[in-house]
Amino acid sequence: MTVTGVQLQEYLAGLDYPVSREDLIRWGQENGASTEVLQMLKALPAEQFDSPAELGEALGTLA
């Protein structure tokens, strides 16, 4: 199963930016993200994201 942008947005809704990669992982764990989603978050190239658009771009490079 592949993770879609919509699934990621469901897990990451309500985040305050800027947000660190570690905070994203923690947020996903607390909100029931699947193992696949958590692996994607752990693979993100940047340490911090200043906006949803910046996070979206980084996630796009993983797909």
UniProtKB/TrEMBL annotation:
This is DUF2795 domain-containing protein. It comes from Micromonospora sicca.
